[in-house]
Every structure is written in structure tokens, then in C-alpha cells.
Amino acid sequence: MITYKIDKETYTLNHEDAIYFYSYDDDTFCRMSDKTVQVNNRLYEIEDELMNHGFIRISKWNVVNFNLIHSAFRIFNSRMSIKMINGDKLYVNRTYIKKFILYLKEKGEING
């Protein structure tokens, strides 16, 4: 269960509201369409919990909702740039690129 606090009140996060999760300075955040909240879970816990719900790790710092990716482009140095539906731009780094491309193929998003 992924939780977050607002004004000392704890809430359970509905994964369908999450565009992506990211880590910054040992804290983990969830970017939603209307807000960003600090969650009480570590990124690896989120990845494990949501991998069967369309979420995939793209870097050491990001886990994204695959269904909310607007577009993806190959860039230099064996990386990809992805644009989320809210306009945020993230990068799939070399460590995760093969897994990401395999995931695209499994979902029928690319041929090959």
C-alpha cells in the first residue's frame, strides 16, 4: 500500500492517479495531474507493488505509469526521452533501456 501525508493526515494513494514516482534527496514523490505529494514508500517498494499495474522503472530515480506516456524518442548514448501526458519529460537511461524496449514490444507498441 502506497501512502502519503497532507497536514498530518495519512492517505492511501490510488495508483491510477499516479503519472510517475521519483526520488530526490532520499525522499520519494508521486506526480499526479493536479499535485505532487511525498509518499511514505521507497522507490523499489513502489516498483514491486505496481509492476503488475502498468508501472515500469526507467532510471535509478523514476518509476512511470506506462499507460500515461504520451511519446517516446530515442536519443544519443543509448537513452530514450519520454514525455508524460502532463508534459513532463523524463529519460530512460542505459541500465533500463533494454527492459523498457522489451516492455514496449510486449505491449505491442513497437514491432521487432
Automatic annotation (TrEMBL):
Transmembrane parts of this sequence: none
Molecular functions (GO terms): DNA binding
Domain HTH LytTR-type: 2-110
Pfam hit, one: LytTR
UniProt-listed InterPro entries: LytTR_DNA-bd_dom (IPR007492)
Protein name, entry field: LytTR family transcriptional regulator
Record organism: Hujiaoplasma nucleasis
